[in-house]
Specification:
five-stranded mixed beta sheet
Length: 342
């Protein structure tokens, strides 16, 4: 139970490491308001309890370098999985962190470890990802109920075919390439599925893959890139093929298939409305909720209650909601003006 996060401040060439048991999925809310508020929140935590988490347990992390004016982070509940939302968030964030270089930690916690000079390989602890059943990716009945990704292939005759994907992650890259090619060659034209889905409130794809049979190259991208350190040996799985990883750059996929309309345009106003809810919502300390539950159990007569002390490693974010709303309305209005001028 929890959403564990590593919080780091670099100052005077030293690194202060803190631990929060609950804030990984709300980190985007706390960081949004600039370096002063972010550092204040981080330093509420006990530095004696801070430590590095491996990539299994770490669901969010931030490093604020006060000396070099840099912000490196990943986390949040929605921005980590939705590319358009993340891009708008980062553009708005830049307005609140004037003078800072802001970077998304595409590799997750290992990016922070690299920056801090820590042994990042020691934090890699995820088991090898297993290949999926190919049919689960291409069949809406076997996979999911809506389009989650885009697959395309440039066959030996230089004909490009595009297919919707329905599985929840990008495990296709771990499948046998010959089996994938054999499977899609049996499928009929499914390109119209994107247009049909768009009329049903088509969500933005979270991953994609392109196979070019003429050059024996496979390209792929995804919204959650925190598994990037595990792709080094993919070419061993695809013998004789080149593998190119685009991280979250789906536009490169659009260029390869010469069809940018497969991907919906970013709805900036909708993204802003959602970001407003994220950063201007009520901030509750989950540790207080745990205390309330424990008190309720005690009052009900429970005598033996064992609680992991780590669940209390959390702090509240104290910036008043009215102040946050006022600031957000100003910067979002300016942002929309800039977008309309482009």
């Amino acid at each position: 139970m929890g959403q564990r996060a590593v919080l780091i401040i670099a100052e005077n060439e030293k690194y202060e490491i803190y631990y929060d048991h609950w804030c990984a999925n709300t980190l985007d809310s706390y960081l949004f308001w600039g370096p002063e508020e972010a550092v204040s929140f981080i330093r509420k935590h006990d530095p004696k309890k801070g430590y590095w988490l491996n990539d299994v347990w770490c669901e969010g992390a931030v490093l604020v370098d006060l000396d070099k004016k840099k912000l490196l982070f990943f986390g949040g509940e929605d921005i980590i999985y939705e590319i358009p939302l993340r891009r708008v968030y980062l553009e708005l964030l830049a307005e609140m962190w004037k003078g800072y270089e802001i970077k998304w930690a595409y590799h997750g916690i290992t990016d922070l470890a690299r920056y801090a000079g820590y042994d990042w390989k020691s934090l890699m602890d995820k088991s090898k990802r297993e290949e999926c059943e190919i049919i689960n990716s291409f069949d809406s009945d076997s996979g999911g109920f809506y389009i989650t990704g885009v697959f395309s292939i440039n066959d030996k005759n230089n004909i490009i075919k595009v297919f919707p994907l329905y599985s929840y992650d990008n495990r296709l890259i771990f499948c046998d390439n010959e089996k994938i090619i054999e499977y899609v060659n049996k499928l009929g034209d499914r390109s119209k599925a994107f247009e049909e889905e768009r009329h049903k409130d088509y969500t933005f794809p979270s991953y994609g893959m392109h196979i070019d049979m003429t050059s024996k190259t496979s390209f792929f991208w995804e919204s959650d890139t925190t598994n990037a350190d595990y792709y080094d040996n993919l070419e061993n799985l695809w013998d004789g093929w080149e593998i190119q990883y685009f991280y979250d750059d789906y536009q490169k996929h659009a260029v390869l298939i010469e069809n940018e309309h497969i991907f919906p345009e970013i709805d900036h106003r909708n993204c802003i409305d959602r970001i407003r809810n994220i950063v201007c919502g009520e901030n509750k300390n989950p540790a207080d909720t745990v205390k309330d539950i424990v008190d309720a159990l005690k009052n009900s007569g429970k005598e033996k209650i064992e609680i992991n002390p780590a669940v209390y490693a959390a702090n509240s974010f104290d910036m008043p909601k009215d102040s946050r709303v006022d600031i957000f309305e100003k910067i979002s209005a300016e942002y929309l003006k800039k977008i309309r001028k482009k």
